[in-house]
Each structure stands twice: as C-alpha cells, then as structure tokens.
Please model this.
Amino acid sequence: MSLKHFLPGLVVLVAMPLLLQAATQEHPSTIKADAKHPTTAPLSPQQEEEGDRIFKQNCSRCHNAPEGFSSNISGTVVRHMRVRVSLSRHEEEELLRFLNP
Amino acid sequence: MLQPKLVFRLSRVARSARPFGLALVMLCAARYGIAQNTPLLSGGIGFFTNTNAGNTSYTPIIEPLLAAPIGQHFLIESRAAILESFFPRGGGRTGYDHSYFAGLTYLQGDYIASSHLTLVGGSFLIPFGTYNERLSPIWISNFQDGPLIANLGLLSTGRGTGGMMRGSAISNHKYSIDYAAYFSSRVGNEQFASERSFGGRTSLYLKDQRLEAGLSYNRSLQGTQENFYGMHVWWEPADTAFRLRSEYARGHHAQGYWIEADYRSQAFGGLNSFVGRFEPLIRLQQTFRRDTIVSDGLPPANTQRVDFGLDYNLPHNTRILTSYARQFSSTGNFNVWETGIVYRFLFPAWKGK
Model:
C-alpha cells in the first residue's frame, strides 16, 4: 500500500483533535422539541419517565437521539416512528407528550 | 447501503422522477401542516473513503428523507440517495474515474388504519431481517458498508412495489409482537425496480430485557422461484450503551450471518463527555455458498470477515466513522479501510402554522 491509501485516514486523524476539542464543550443532548407548542400541563415525573422509557426502548435502539428539533415536526416524527417500529397508540401518545413537555 | 453505481443520464432520471415530483406537487397542494404535524426533511450528508484491497474510492453522498402527514391517518414518506463516486481507473491506467447516481430508495404512502394495522402502498423497503429497514440510512449505520449477507432476501433491489400490512399485534409494558407482510409486483422502471415476491417478518420484543428475536421469510415469484429465510436477535441491555445485533439469512444458493457489537462508556462523565462520545465496534461475519450459482450478491466463495471500528459522535448530529476489516476467502485475503463523516439533519419542510 502506498502513502495515498493512508491519506484519508491521515486527514481524519489530523482533524480529529480539533473536532474532539469542540466535542469536549458540553452540549445539552436534548431530544425534546423546541417549546413552541407546549402541552397545557407540565409533565409529571412519571410521564417524563414513561416517555423516556418509550424513547429508549424504541427509538434510540437504532439511532442516536437528534439534538433538538422544531416542535412543528414533533407529531410527524412520532408518526414516522409509529410506522417504522410499530408503536402502539399508548406509546405514540406518551412519546409525543415527552417530546413536547 | 450504497446503491449500485450507475452512469448518469439526465433525461432518464428526469423521466423516472416524475412520480416523485407529482407526489411533491400533491403535498404542496395539500393544506399546510398544523402545529406538530408539519412535513419534515431529514437525512444525512456524508463523505466516505474506502480503501479496498489497495484501491481507494471517495464518495460524497446525500440521503434526504421526506415525511409528510396528511390528515390524521396518512403519512407519505420517501428517501433518496444522491452520490458521486470517484474510483481508480484500473487496468494499469492512472487517475480516477467517476460515476453518478441519483435515485429513490423508497416512496410509500402509509394509512394508519388502527392501533394494530398500518397499510402501506407504493415502493417500500422489503421487511426482511433488520438491516434494510432499520440500519441502512447513512446517519444510522455504524459501519460504512453493509453486511456481506445484506442482499440475501432483498431480491436485488431491496425494495418492493405493491402493498404491505404491518403493525403491532400485541403490545404491553412487558413485550410486543410486531408483524409485516407484503406483496410486490415486478416493476422495470429504474426508480422503482422490484421483483415479484411476497413475504414478511415477525418479531418478539421483551421490553425490560431489551431483547428482540424475529423471523423473516420471503419468496421470489419470478424467474427461478426461491425461498429466503432470516432470523435476527438484538440485545441492548437497559441502562447501558452496549448494543448487540445479529442476523442470519439463508437463500437457495448461499447463507451467512453477522454479529455486531458497539459500546459507549458512561463511566467518564456520561455519553456526552469526551470519552463517552467514542464508540468502539466489532462485526464478525461469515458467508457460505451452498452451490456454485452466484446470483445473490454474496461472495463467490466461503468468506470470513472481521470489522473493527471506532466511531466518534460529535455534537450537532455529526459522526465520524472509521473501520478496518480483514476479509478471508479462498479467492484471496484483503484489507478494507474505511473513513467517513456524516451529518444528520432534521427540520420542517416549511413553516407550519
């Protein structure tokens, strides 16, 4: 193998420290939608826990949680997930509530 | 999973993209999404390099996904892949050649009939195993390339054109049983190419144990009719960032399996710490030929392969994917080095009310 074959890896290795430096600055890893359309009542701890459980059991099994998104699409996200992972109605409702605290 | 490389012909792509354009026009003509139900655009933008047996290729790629709810029960969803691949000319010639590909991965309409039944029509991903439906998007997969058996049971294109029933047969706090059953007709159109087939998948998911086991079956109904059988087991222990996924598939001419494990440490400040963002991976896979007919995309000889990966989950939905693989078979052993970076986006298609 010649040097050019290592070039891609070399680029990543050189870029890595810079990217890692940015990564060490803590970012809130929220999966919640922006609070533009809040539900009428705040989530109880039980509801919060239930939503978190449903999210972990169904969504984050396959992919990382997106770092926040517009509340305008939270219903669409949940409906998409309902079809993809066959969410029950209860899970769909709890997940939507969890994403829109 | 990257699609086969095709030479770009503008007129052909434009012609075959008409149905997609029509769907977009229909969506735009529909009333704006109400709060929370605004159509979304998601997907991934990536740049991959792959050094396979000493030949390095470069692939910039975009995989956009559209999901648009209509009313209370409908959802239109579609994913596409647009990529340019640069690869060595080969044959003793120097320099690089390139190819372009743009095409729909799927375009389907979903009607949520009840809490147990969703009817799907259009061009959909074949529900066989788990890789095709769940792990193939570039912003989800841990490795840049799919498993060796990824094509087994996917009937050449990985998608069907027709109808599907799917949903949750039983779901409670302890477990759920899901199902999907489809029928696909033969379609020759480049954007919606599919084979005549039927099949399905069912799986049992133990929620507390985070353990899922499932079975898949489908049958090709054109040309030489073949059966395909699949099995998958996933285990993701609760409160850990460890994931174990595996699949076995058997076709008429070959069979194989893959096992993949990945882990993120929470011991040094959580998943969003410097250390927690690292994600070491390993994937073991084997394929076995049952006869000498190579029509399923698997290697022509029995093959063993091990992939070692190290991904890094950057903030802002960005991932760096790196891996090294060694592939062993009687036709030759070789190394595969892969690096890539993927950004996942997710935003409203337009401003909702």
